[in-house]
Amino acid sequence: MKIYRLTLLTALLLLSFTNEIQSQFLQTRINDPEPANALIGKRSDNDWYRHQDYLNLNSFFHGSETDSSNFFTHYNSQKNIHLNSTSTGAITPDSSIVESWNPITEKWSALEKREYTYDAFGNVTFELRSVWDTHNHKWNGFEKKEYSCDPRGNVIMETDYSREQTSGKWLGFFKKEQAYDAEGNISLYIKYDWDINLSKWITSRREEYIYLSSGNINSLFIYDWDKTAGKWIPQQKTKATYNSEGNRLFEIAYDWDKITNQWVGTYKSEYNYNSNGKLILYNTFHYEKSSNSWIYEVKNETTWDTE
Q: What is the set of domains in the chain, with CATH numbers?
């Protein structure tokens, strides 16, 4: 049996990170491998520029909206990035090229290229990553990603492929589907694995999130797909309660017992706060089946200076 230790706090952080990535989709992807510090904005002369800090060295993206030769460049011994864009009204690059400086030849050498396509609303729908073949002097694609978004711009499907070096065929290696509630919170996450023998996607994992009106996660349910039975099998559930300020007070996790077909407690956490809402006590327990009792695991006390 797979045991997941995904607490609601971890889940909330993951979802927060996912939403941030979606809201800053281009900003993080076009400047990989290290995301931009900030999108500065649009100047009065109708130019775009972007600030980025690589190893404490400042750089700028600069170019006219109507100039197809727009580029972002960072000249040091580490990397040089060019962004090419033919779009207008927003920074939606068609491609980005990463280069490295060769101190011997004193020339920039191409390393990686990323190409993008978009839907009518500016959401990325396709991304292709390629590496430069120095022997044949051409770009070789090695990874591609396909995205589908809902009318609000939320990613509802992502499918990733990698190219098999020998045959040159594209093979799936990651796929996910996501659904959202009326507030834009992820309510359903489904992960798929690629079956290389059947050459198709097989459902693997399912996560269901239930939120309170405050936006805090109330419950998380995790399931694994049983290929033989052809159905979802419960694995873990986690529930949490909060105070009126939205601070977590209690959290408890359960594993599904396939023999008794019921939920069995595995761990729980308790939180206490001072009058300023700062955490002062954090206790965790694990459940011991042999004694049928909760065993103290961690006690963490924090003292704050008087404000």
A: 8-242 (2.40.128.720)
| Cα maximum dimension of the chain | 73
Report which residue type is found at 185. N
Confidence of residue 74 (pLDDT cuts 50, 70, 90): very low
- pLDDT over threshold 80, residue 247: yes
Confidence of residue 120 (pLDDT cuts 50, 70, 90): confident
Q: Are 27 and 13 in contact (CB under 8 A)?
A: no
What Rg do the C-alpha atoms of the chain give, in angstroms? 24
Q: Which residues contact 39 (CB under 8 A, 6 or more apart)?
A: 24, 27, 50, 91
The sign one gets for the Cα dihedral 7, 8, 9, 10 is positive
User: For residue 228, is pLDDT > 80?
Assistant: yes
Sign of CA dihedral 96, 97, 100, 101: negative
Residue 61 CB contacts under 8 Å (≥ 6 apart), including other chains: 48, 49, 50, 52, 70, 71, 72, 83, 91
pTM for the structure as a whole? 0.69
Euclidean distance between the first and the last CA atom of the chain, given in angstroms as a whole number:
48
